[in-house]
TrEMBL record, chain A:
Organism from which the protein derives: Salipiger thiooxidans
Superkingdom assignment: Bacteria
SUPFAM superfamilies: Folate-binding domain
Pfam family for this entry, one: SoxG
Official protein name in the record: Sarcosine oxidase subunit gamma
From TrEMBL, chain B:
InterPro entries (UniProt xref): SoxD, SoxD_sf
Species this protein is from: Salipiger thiooxidans
UniProt protein name: Sarcosine oxidase subunit delta
NCBIfam families in alphabetical order: soxD
GO MF annotation terms: sarcosine oxidase activity
GO biological process, one term: tetrahydrofolate metabolic process
TrEMBL record, chain C:
Keywords: Oxidoreductase
Family from the record: Belongs to the GcvT family.
Pfam family of the protein (one): Fer2_4
Record-annotated SoxA A3 domain positions: 515-598
GO molecular function: sarcosine oxidase activity
Protein name: Sarcosine oxidase subunit alpha
Top-level taxonomy: Bacteria, Pseudomonadati, Pseudomonadota, Alphaproteobacteria, Rhodobacterales
Boundaries of every GCVT N-terminal domain copy: 615-884
Biological-process GO terms, alphabetical: tetrahydrofolate metabolic process
Recorded superkingdom: Bacteria
Length: 184, 100, 996
C-alpha cells in the first residue's frame, strides 16, 4: 500500500458486506495534560474529565476521552481549537497544564458494519468486546498505537498518526474483503 | 504471550501493549556527584539475575503510557502483582502466600 | 472400483470421483479421500524414499503423525509445497503430487546404495567420519551431506497465496473434537460460555470417524455425531476444522493454524490460504487423543507395514482395504479389532501374531469365528518384498528364547505396540509428566496453566471413557469459570476397550547389529543406533536424541519418542522416568512461514512512513532511502545523472544559492509546564535557564553512563514551553527515555511531554539566498541579522500559514527551518519552490545534507557516535553545562574510564593521496606492525562529492585530539592509505557564511 493518504478519495475507502472504512472529516485535536483538581478544566470545557481510563464525555461539539491518569484527547471542530486554547490559557497560572494542538498529527478512520469489531481483531490483541460502546481506549493495531472510540456496537473511530494511515488502511481493506468472503 | 495487569488502567491486557523496562527499585541517586565510582557503577550496570520473584518495570506503551512496577516469577513467568511507580516494594511473603 | 475400495464403507463419496496425479500418473479417488487413502485404494503403498537410506516407504499412519508418506503438492501455478503429509492432503480434481527423495525414480533409486552401506551409516556417523581431514569439511563433506540429506525441495517461485491472522478471546478452548472434546464442549456450552472447538481434521468426530460400530445413546456413532455437531453449533459453539493447535503459549494463549484453501480445486476470491489464530482462552481443554506406537522389528518400515489403528481408519473412514491378505502383529488388544474389521470387509487375515502369552477369551472367540489363525507368544523377526511387503517371518518365543521362524505370505502387516497419549501441547505449558508403569507411558500430571486434559490424552481407553471424562473435565472448567454444570451421562454400546503391553524391540533371532528395526522412520533411526549411542557414552536422553537424531524430524517424535525411550532406558539399565523424556516443542505439526508472517509480506511487510512532501519528491524523481520507519528523499537525480553527480550538484547549488530540504521526519517533542526549564536542565547536557524566549540552542542528550544518545535543536517558544527536536530515528526512543525519567525519577516536576513529530511539516531552506527568498513571505518578524539572528525561533506567519520559524543551519549556510501544521506542508513546499525559482532553488536529499554537515564537522548521532562516545570524545565539551549541579550523564562523564587518556576521539581525516576513505575502515598507527595489527579507530563518515574540492572524512581515533597533524594508516585489501588527522571542520571554520 504505497498510495499516500492525501490521495485517498472522499467517501468510503473500503466497502464490503462485512465492513465499511472511511476517513472522517478533519477535526481539531488537542492533547490535554493536567493533574490534581480537574474541576476548573471541566468548568471551562463543560464536560466531565473524570472516570476510568477510556471514559468519554461530550459537550456540544467537543468530546473528550481519558487516555491516562493525567492525559485526555479532545476533539472539536477545526475552527474551535483557538477558542479552546484561549479559554484554557487563563487556568495555567493556578492550574498548570499542557495543551498541545495535535490536529495536524492525526487522522481518523470510521470503521463500521456488521463485522467491524471482528475486523479489528486482525490487528488488535486485546478483547475488543471489553471496549464498551460509548467508551474508548488507546491500544495497538498492527503494531501501531491507535485510539479506538467505540461509538456503537458496530461502529468505531480509529485515531492514528498520519504517516501510519496507509499501512493500517491496507490491512483494514484486506481484512474487510476477507471477512466478506467468509461464509458464516 | 503474557497477560499484564496495568495498575493505572486497571485492566489485564496482552503483553503486546507493553514494553519491558528493566529491574525496578533502582533509584537514581539524588546527588549523583556525591556518589562513589563503585556505587555509580552499581547503579548503572549491576542488576540482579533473579531466579524466582523479580521486581521489574514495564511501560503500558500502547495504552496509558505509564511506567509501573511488577513482581514476576522468572521461573513460571507469572506475575505475582503489579503496582504503581513510586509505590513501595510489596512484601514477597504475602504475594507468594496468596499463590498457594 | 478397485479391489481395495470397499463399497458401503467409509465416509468418502464414491459417486463423486476425483482425479489427481502422483508422479505424473493419473489416479482416481473419491470425494473425501486424502492422497494416501486414494493411492491405497489404488493398491499403491510406495509413496516415498527415506531420508538417509533412501529406503522405499509407504504410509504407516493415517493422520498428521505420518512420518513416511511425505509428498510434494502442486496446487496450480506457483503453488508448490514440499513435505506435505499424503495422509492429510485432501484430493481434488487437478491436484498434482509427487514423491520425494528419489533419483532417478521412486521405484529405482541410486541413493538406496546408502541402504546397502547401512553398517557404515550408524548413529554419529557424520560426527565420526567427517571429522578428518579438517579441510575436507567445506569442500567435500558438507556439499555431499547437503546434497544427500534433506526432505523434499524448496519451492522456487514466490508464494502467490496470502495469509491471515486474527486474535480471538473465548471462555473455553477445546483442542480435539473427538468424543472427549465433544462432551467437554457440550458441558461448557450449555452453561452459556463462549466455546471454541478445534480439530485438525476436515470434520469433527476424532476416533468416532474410525469406529462406526459404536452406539451412543442408542444411535449409531455417525448419526449421533452429526446430531451432536449440529446441537453444539446451535448452542453457539464455534467449531473450527482443518485447524491445528500448533502451540500453547503463556497464560492460555494457543496458536491455531487454520487451513482454508488447500483442499479446494477453485480458490475463492479474497480468501487466505491459512490463518493463524491467537486465541486467549479462560480455560483450555486438551482432548487430543492418543497416537499408536509402531512395533520395532527388522523390516518394520517396508511399504505395506502400517499401524493397525490406521488400517482400521482407512477402512472405516475412507472405505479402503490396505491389503487383502494382511497379517496383524501386536502387543495390544486394539489391533485384534482391526483384524476383525478388515476380515469383515473381505480381507483374508493371514494371522494375528501377538507377543503376549494370553489374551482375553472373547478375542480368541471372535478370531476363531472369522477363521483367523492366531499365534500367541510369537514375535516378528523380518519382512521381505522389494517395494511392498510380501512375507513376514514370525517366530515363537518361549521362556525368552526365540524359536525358529516361519514365513507367512501377506500384502500388508498391521502392527500395534499400544498407544501413547498425545502430550505435545500439554508439554508446551511446562506441564509435568508422571510415568505410568501399567501403561508403560508418561501421563500428564500438573500444569501451571488453566488447562485440563481429557480422554485418551490422559490414558483413558474407549469411547465411553472418553465421553465420560470429557463431560467431567468440561464440568471442571465450567466450575473454574464460576458456574456449576450438571453432570451428563452417555450410554455407550459396542465400545472396544482393551489392554496391552509395551515393548522395546521385539525379540529376534537375528544379530542385533544387523537388524534394521526402525524407531524414527523419518530420520531413519534404528534400535541399533540408540543402543550404540548409549554404548558410546550418551547417558542423557537429550544426548541420545541429538546423537541419533531420534525424534528430531518434522514429526517431532510423535511415534518414536516412547519406543526410543524404552530402548534407551533398557540399554542404560534404568527405569524410563529416570531417563526422562525429551521436550516437545512447538509447532505441533509443520507450519508454513506464510502462516507466521500473516499479512506482513510484500508492501505490507512493515510500516513505511511518508511525509506530506514525499509525494512531491516522488513526482520529481527522488531516489529514496529508509531511515527508521520513514522513507526519505535521498537525492534528486536529473536525467542521466549518477548519484554522485546529483549530490555534487545539490551540494554546489545549496552553497552557491539555495537548497530546499524536507526535514519533516525530525522527531519533535513539545515540553510544557512550569518546570519545563528545570526538566530540560536535567535531561540535556546544556544549560537552558538563560536561553531566552525566541532563542534556540543545539542540545545534546546523554545517558546516565555519559555517552551521547541523541541531539537536536531546541527552541524556547515561551517561558514554560520548549520545541525539542530529535534525530529522525531517535524520536520514539528519546520520548520514552524522557517519560521514564519524568514519571519514575522526577514525578514531582510539573511538566508534560507531547510528541509533535507529525504535527509539523518542516521545510529547511539553506543557502546564501535563503533569507532573500523567505523574507517577503514572512509576517511577524524581520529576517535581518539584528531582528532574527542565527539560533532564533519565532511563531509567525509564512506564506499565510501559521508557522514556527527557526533560524538554524545544519549546512554552514544561512539556514531556516519552517514548521507549519502538517496538512499545509505540501502547500508551503510548493510556495517556496515557486518563489525560489528566481534563485535556482534546488531540492536536496539526505545524502547532500550528510555531505554538507560533514564539511562543517556536525555529527550524525549513530553514525559518528556508536553508544560509546561522550560529548568530550566528540569534541563537543562546549555543549556540557559544567556548572549545573546535575544532568543525565554528568556523573557518568566523571567515571574513571571516561576521563582516562587514550579514548577514541572524533577527528577529521584527509587522505594523503586524495582518495576517498571507506566508511567503517579500521585505522592503525603503524602499518608495518605484524598482523593482527592494533586497531586504533575507524572511519565514521567519508565523502568525496562535496564543495571543499577534496575527499573528507570523520573518524574516531585513539587520543585523536592530541594527534592533529599526525599520519595514520588505513589498511585496505589492495593497499594501505595514509591519512592526516585534522580538525573536524573542513569548510568555513569562521562561520562567516551564516551571516545574512
Amino acid at each position: 500500500m504505497n498510495a499516500p493518504i492525501s490521495s485517498f478519495a472522499s467517501g468510503p475507502l473500503v466497502e464490503t458486506s462485512a465492513a465499511r472504512v472511511s476517513q472522517s472529516a478533519p477535526c481539531g485535536r488537542l492533547s490535554l495534560r493536567a493533574r490534581g483538581d480537574l474541576a476548573p478544566f471541566e468548568a471551562v470545557l463543560g464536560l466531565s474529565l473524570g472516570g476510568p481510563i477510556g471514559a468519554r464525555a461530550t459537550a456540544g461539539e467537543t468530546e473528550s476521552i481519558r487516555l491516562g491518569p493525567d492525559e485526555w484527547m479532545l476533539h472539536c471542530p477545526v475552527e474551535a481549537v483557538a477558542g479552546l486554547e484561549a479559554a484554557l490559557a487563563p487556568l495555567y497560572g493556578s492550574h498548570p497544564h499542557s495543551l498541545v494542538d495535535v490536529s495536524g498529527r492525526e487522522t481518523s478512520f470510521v470503521i463500521e458494519g456488521p463485522r467491524a469489531s471482528e475486523l479489528l481483531t486482525m490487528g488488535c490483541p486485546r478483547d475488543i468486546e471489553t471496549i464498551l460502546p460509548g467508551s474508548g481506549r488507546r491500544t495497538v493495531f498492527d503494531g501501531v498505537t491507535v485510539i479506538l472510540w467505540r461509538d456503537a456496537a458496530d461502529r468505531f473511530r480509529m485515531d492514528l498518526w498520519h504517516s501510519f494511515a496507509p499501512h493500517l488502511l491496507h490491512l483494514l481493506e484486506t481484512g474487510s474483503r476477507e471477512l466478506a468472503a467468509e461464509s458464516l | 504471550m503474557l497477560l499484564i495487569h496495568c495498575p493505572y488502567c486497571n485492566e489485564t491486557l496482552p503483553e503486546v501493549e507493553f514494553a519491558y523496562a528493566g529491574e525496578a527499585h533502582i533509584a537514581r541517586p539524588v546527588n549523583p556527584s556525591e556518589v562513589s565510582d563503585a556505587d555509580w557503577e552499581a547503579f548503572l550496570f549491576l542488576r540482579d539475575n533473579v531466579k524466582g520473584p523479580h521486581y521489574e518495570r514495564w511501560r503500558h506503551l500502547h495504552g496509558c503510557g505509564r511506567f509501573f512496577n511488577a513482581v514476576r516469577d522468572t521461573v513460571s513467568d507469572k506475575f505475582l502483582t503489579t503496582y504503581e511507580a513510586g509505590a513501595p516494594r510489596p512484601d514477597l511473603a504475602s504475594l507468594t502466600e496468596r499463590l498457594k | 472400483m478397485s479391489q481395495y475400495r470397499v463399497s458401503g464403507r467409509g465416509r468418502v463419496d464414491t459417486s463423486r470421483p476425483v482425479s489427481f496425479t502422483f508422479d505424473g500418473k493419473t489416479f482416481t479417488g473419491a470425494q473425501g479421500d486424502t492422497v494416501a487413502s486414494a493411492l491405497l485404494a489404488n493398491g499403491v503403498h510406495l509413496m516415498g524414499r527415506s531420508f538417509k537410506y533412501h529406503r522405499p516407504r509407504g504410509p504407516v499412519a493415517a493422520g498428521s503423525e505420518e512420518p513416511n508418506a511425505l509428498i510434494g503438492t502442486r496446487r496450480g501455478a506457483g503453488r508448490f509445497e514440499p513435505n506435505t503429509r499424503a495422509t492429510v492432503q485432501e484430493i481434488w480434481d487437478g491436484l498434482q503430487t509427487n514423491s520425494q527423495n528419489k533419483y532417478p525414480s521412486l521405484k529405482f533409486d541410486v541413493g538406496a546404495v546408502n541402504d546397502a552401506a547401512y553398517m557404515l551409516f550408524s548413529a554419529g556417523f557424520y560426527y565420526k567420519t567427517f571429522m578428518w581431514p579438517r579441510s575436507f569439511w567445506d569442500k567435500v563433506y558438507e556439499p555431499f551431506i547437503r546434497g544427500a540429506a534433506g526432505l523434499g525441495v524448496s519451492p522456487t517461485e514466490e508464494d502467490p497465496d496470502h495469509y491471515a491472522s486474527r486474535n480471538m478471546h473465548c471462555d473455553v478452548l477445546i483442542v480435539g473434537a473427538g468424543p472427549s472434546g465433544l462432551a467437554a464442549a457440550r458441558a461448557a456450552a450449555v452453561e452459556g460460555l463462549k466455546v471454541v472447538l478445534v480439530d485438525e481434521s476436515p470434520e469433527a468426530g476424532g476416533t468416532l470417524l474410525s469406529e462406526p460400530q459404536v452406539k451412543i445413546d442408542g444411535k449409531p456413532a455417525w448419526d449421533w455425531l452429526a446430531a451432536e455437531v449440529e446441537a453444539l453449533k446451535a448452542l453457539g459453539v464455534k467449531i473450527m476444522t482443518r485447524t491445528t493447535a500448533i502451540a500453547y503459549y503463556h497464560q492460555n494463549m494457543v496458536g491455531l493454524c487454520e487451513k482454508l484453501t488447500d483442499h479446494l480445486a477453485t480458490l475463492p476470491a479474497d480468501t487466505p490460504r491459512e490463518r493463524l489464530w491467537r486465541v486467549r482462552a479462560g480455560q483450555v481443554v486438551l482432548a487430543q487423543g492418543a497416537l499408536e506406537k509402531p512395533l520395532v522389528f527388522h523390516g518394520n518400515d517396508r511399504p505395506g507395514v502400517m499401524l493397525a489403528g490406521s488400517a482400521q481408519t482407512y477402512l472405516n473412514r475412507y472405505g479402503v482395504l490396505v491389503g487383502t491378505r494382511p497379517v496383524v502383529v501386536t502387543s495390544h488388544d486394539s489391533a485384534w479389532y482391526a483384524a476383525f474389521d478388515l476380515a469383515d470387509a473381505g480381507a483374508k487375515v493371514q494371522a494375528i501374531v501377538d507377543i503376549r502369552e494370553g489374551v482375553h477369551e472373547a478375542l480368541l472367540t471372535e478370531a476363531r469365528a472369522r477363521g483367523i489363525p492366531v499365534k500367541l507368544s510369537h514375535t516378528a523377526t523380518a519382512t521381505s518384498g522389494r517395494l511392498r511387503v510380501s512375507k513376514i517371518r514370525v517366530n515363537p518365543v518361549r521362556g525368552g528364547q526365540v524359536g525358529s521362524g516361519t514365513e507367512i505370505d501377506c500384502d500388508a502387516v498391521l502392527m500395534s505396540g499400544g498407544w501413547t497419549p498425545s502430550l505435545h501441547l500439554f508439554s508446551h505449558t511446562k506441564g509435568s509428566l508422571a510415568w505410568n508403569d501399567d501403561l508403560t507411558t508418561f501421563l500428564p500430571e500438573k500444569t501451571p496453566e488453566d488447562c485440563v486434559i481429557a480422554g485418551a490424552s490422559r490414558g483413558l481407553w474407549g469411547v465411553e471413557a472418553a465421553l465420560r471424562d470429557g463431560a467431567e473435565k468440561g464440568r471442571e472448567v465450567v466450575a473454574a469459570l464460576g458456574k456449576s454444570g450438571a453432570s451428563v451421562a452417555y450410554a455407550v454400546a459396542d465400545d472396544r476397550t482393551g489392554t496391552g503391553v509395551s515393548m522395546k524391540e521385539l525379540p529376534t533371532d537375528r544379530s542385533p547389529g544387523k537388524a534394521k528395526a526402525f524407531v524414527d522412520y523419518q530420520n531413519d533411526v534404528t534400535a541399533k543406533d540408540l543402543r550404540l549411542a548409549v554404548r558410546e557414552g550418551m547417558r542423557s536422553i537429550e544426548h541420545v536424541k541429538r546423537y541419533t537424531t531420534n525424534g528430531m524430524a518434522t514429526d517431532q517424535g510423535k511415534m518414536s519418542n516412547i519406543n526410543g525411550l524404552n530402548i534407551a532406558s533398557d540399554a542404560l539399565g534404568k527405569k524410563q522416568p529416570q531417563v526422562g523424556l525429551t521436550t516437545f516443542r512447538p509447532p505441533y505439526t509443520p507450519t508454513t512461514f506464510g502462516a507466521f508472517a500473516g499479512y506482513h509480506r510484500g508492501s505490507h511487510f512493515e510500516v513505511t512512513r511518508k511525509t506530506r512532501i514525499d509525494e512531491w519528491a516522488a513526482q520529481h524523481g527522488a531516489a529514496f532511502e529508509p531511515v527508521g520507519q520513514w522513507r526519505r528523499a535521498w537525492y534528486f537525480p536529473k536525467a542521466g545523472e549518477s548519484m554522485d553527480d546529483a549530490v555534487r550538484r545539490e551540494c554546489a547549488a545549496t552553497r552557491e544559492s539555495l537548497g530546499i530540504f524536507d526535514a519533516s521526519t525530525l522527531g519533535k517533542i513539545e515540553v510544557v509546564g512550569p518546570d519545563a526549564v528545570e526538566f530540560m536542565n536535567r535531561m540535556y547536557t546544556n544549560p537552558w535557564t538563560k536561553l531566552g524566549v525566541g532563542r534556540c540552542r543545539y542540545g545534546l542528550l546523554c545517558g546516565d553512563d555519559g555517552f551521547i544518545r541523541d541531539d537536536g535543536v531546541i527552541g524556547r517558544m515561551g517561558q514554560d514551553r520548549f520545541h525539542v527536536t530529535t534525530t529522525t530515528g531517535g524520536a520514539a526512543r528519546v520520548l520514552n527515555m524522557m517519560e521514564d525519567y519524568l514519571q519514575t525519577e522526577w514525578p514531582d516536576l510539573n511538566v508534560w511531554l507531547t510528541s509533535t513529530t507529525e504535527q509539523w511539516a518542516t521545510v529547511a531552506l539553506n543557502g546564501p539566498n535563503a533569507a532573500k527568498l523567505l523574507a517577503p513571505l514572512v509576517e511577524g518578524v524581520e529576517l535581518t541579522e539584528e531582528a532574527f539572528p542565527h539560533m532564533s525561533c519565532v511563531e509567525c506567519t509564512v506564506a499565510g500559514m501559521p508557522a514556527r520559524l527557526f533560524r538554524v543551519s545544519f549546512t554552514g549556510e544561512i539556514g531556516f527551518e519552517v514548521n507549519v501544521p502538517a496538512p499545509m506542508g505540501r502547500q508551503l513546499w510548493e510556495t517556496l519552490w515557486d518563489a525560489g525559482q528566481q534563485y535556482g532553488i534546488t531540492p536536496y536529499g539526505t545524502e547532500t545534507m550528510h555531505v554538507l554537515r560533514a564539511e562543517k564537522g556536525y555529527i550524525i548521532v549513530g553514525q559518528d557516535t556508536d553508544g560509546t562516545v561522550t560529548p568530550f570524545d566528540a569534541g563537543m565539551g562546549w555543549a556540557v553545562g559544567k556548572a549545573k549541579p546535575d544532568f543525565v550523564g554528568k556523573r557518568g562523564l566523571a567515571r574513571p574510564d571516561l576521563v582516562a587518556k587514550g579514548r577514541k576521539q572524533l577527528v577529521g581525516l584527509l587522505s594523503e593521496d586524495g582518495s576517498k576513505l571507506e566508511e567503517g575502515a579500521q585505522i592503525v598507527f603503524d602499518p608495518k606492525q605484524p598482523i593482527p595489527m592494533k586497531m586504533v579507530g575507524h572511519v565514521t563518515s567519508s565523502y568525496d562529492v562535496g564543495t571543499t574540492g577534496r575527499p573528507i572524512a570523520l573518524a574516531l581515533v585513539e587520543g585523536g585530539h592530541d594527534r592533529l597533524g599526525e599520519i595514520v594508516h588505513i589498511p585496505m585489501p589492495d593497499r594501505t592509505i595514509a591519512a592526516k588527522i585534522t580538525g573536524t571542520v573542513f569548510f568555513d571554520p569562521e562561520n562567516a557564511r551564516l551571516k545574512i
